[in-house]
Amino acid sequence: MSAPGTSTSTGVSPDEAGDESATTWATGVPGTASTVFPVSGEDLLVGEGAPAVRHLLSIADLGRDGILEIMRLSDAFAEVAERPIPKVPALRGRTVATVFMEPSTRTRLSFETAAKRLSADVMTFTAATSAAVKGESLRDTVETIDAMGIDAMVIRHHASGAPLRVTDWVGASVINAGDGTHEHPTQALLDCYTIREALTARRDGEVPADLKGLRIAIVGDIKHSRVARSNVLAFTALGAEVVLVAPPTLMPASLEGWPVTATGDLDSTLGEIDVIYLLRIQSERLGEVLLPSLDEYHWRYGLTRARADALKRDALVMHPGPMIRGVEISPEVADMPASLVTRQVRNGVVVRMAVLFHLLGSGVI
Amino acid sequence: MADRERSSTRPKGRVFVARNQVMDRDEVRRALVRIAHEIVERNRGLGDVVVIGIQKGGVALASQLVAILREIEGTAVPFGTMDVAFYRDDIGMRPVLSEEVTDLPFDLTGRTVVLFDDVLFTGRTVRAALESLAERGRASSVQLAVMVDRGHRELPIRPDFVGKNLPTRRDELVEVSEEGVTIGDLLVAGEEKATR
């Protein structure tokens, strides 16, 4: 597994994009006079803002500017999603293949919906119904799919780093939809977008520049969580303070190089955080005995009614899904208004549209 | 923010160098007043008329046009903005940026739509706008107003209302705002002083 902060992509590193200290999330008010003359017609479309990336394997591929660009683009696609015909012809004639070697419904459906709303064609590959069960290697599988002529491959694999290996084998843009315990970058992007949306609503429509000033607790199986890894990178890139909360057995062996604090005590953290991000206890990954029982986990780390009451009044509750009610969250808390879980799902489609458009519409490939 | 958007959409490493101003603030204003009168005359009033500014350059001028229409006719014409990035035919050939969120707070069915853009060049932006409009309802007619028609059309598109016909070279750049219309060149950064 590569260390957090290390870019694993072959794309341009965020550093080369130059320092854009003026970057904000705000979309300008139509009609405001700018001090610079607007460039006319076609020249508007030649850009140098966010780093040009070919693959999305890690949040580090995007960096702060890239994340902000995805947020801005997501606003445009959120408007598309509200239309009577929620579809644009942007990626007409392109083909997106989803290659899921691990069970997943929501992420695959979310990517496929996003691709269809951009008018791209979608090819679906699931391990259970494929030649993989006959013993075909990953390399042969992805090379075969690539040979059919695709523009992007969305891949989920149980091995960390599998998408990076795949970039050597295929000509398509590779998007990591979750690899082992490494990363799940689109989940982190939709989480950032969901927090930004909640903050915008709270500020009467004023879009925050970033997440500076927020304290975000990520609670649960940090050790095995690719969602935690991507979110630590994304939240801190946007200036938020991150505190990891987990029992010692589920905390990574070393947090060196992570700009975070860690604790085993959830209750003392509750009053100081603006967002509580709950991770799913991945029973299928807990090969060794790391938890005495799920009940004990719920008792010490689950978001119960009493703990929810100890949160700040306007704290946000998030979960990447699927939620296991009664383990990481109590059923009654999951249905509280502070819970953004359904917004996360809705924003997943919008943000994945932005990611596909950013990679395939950028003119890089 | 506007500055960031502008700077982020310039071709990398190149800068706009103004050569001469072809319209000043007053001339732009007068052209808008004339276009407003032409719109009223053509449509015999403003009954079903809506004005849509194309992001990004068309929006500021279009909102000025709406204000002028209100002064002339005393009617508040519905005003919307449209970003056509996702409808362009050159996606994937070069970076296509979405400038702003589309905002069309009305139904287009049965309306007379006046599309407004700052510069009419190849016609590809207008084609994209027409495709986007068609998905949102069946307007009874669509008319095109531009501040500058600089020629070099690549599609059979013709404006209904023009501020100024401006012959240009293909490699020149035309910048339009409420402050005026400027013609200039796009030069490699660092070389602009030598050429001046």
Fold and architecture overview:
- The complex is a heterodimer of chains A (365) and B (196).
- A 5-stranded parallel sheet of chain A has the order 7-6-5-8-9, with helices on one face. Chain A has a 4-stranded parallel sheet with strand order 2-1-3-4, with helices on both faces.
- Chain A folds into 2 domains: 51-183 and 346-360, Aspartate/ornithine carbamoyltransferase (Rossmann fold, 3-Layer(aba) Sandwich); 185-340, Aspartate/ornithine carbamoyltransferase (Rossmann fold, 3-Layer(aba) Sandwich), CATH 3.40.50.
- By secondary structure, chain A is α/β, with parallel strands linked by helices.
- In chain A, helix 5 (185-202) packs across helix 6 (226-237) and helix 5 packs across helix 10 (341-360).
- Chain A is globular, with a radius of gyration of 20 Å.
- Chain A is built from 10 helices and 9 strands.
- Chain A is 32% helix and 13% strand.
- With 196 residues, chain B is of the alpha/beta class.
- Chain B has a single domain (24-169), classed as 3-Layer(aba) Sandwich (Rossmann fold).
- Chain B is 30% helix and 30% strand.
- In chain B, the strands form 2 sheets. In chain B, strands 3-2-4-5-6 form a 5-stranded parallel sheet, with helices on both faces. In chain B, strands 1-8-7 form a 3-stranded antiparallel sheet.
- In chain B, helix 4 links the parallel strand 4 and strand 5.
- In chain B, helix 2 (25-42) packs across helix 3.
- Chain B is globular, with a radius of gyration of 17 Å.
- Chain B starts with a helix and ends with a helix.
- At the A-B interface, helix 1 of A face helix 1, helix 3, strand 4, helix 4 and strand 7 of B.
Shape of chain A: globular
CATH architecture of the largest domain in chain A: 3-Layer(aba) Sandwich
Mean pLDDT of chain B: 88
What's the total count of β strands of chain B?
8
CATH class descriptor name of chain B: Alpha Beta
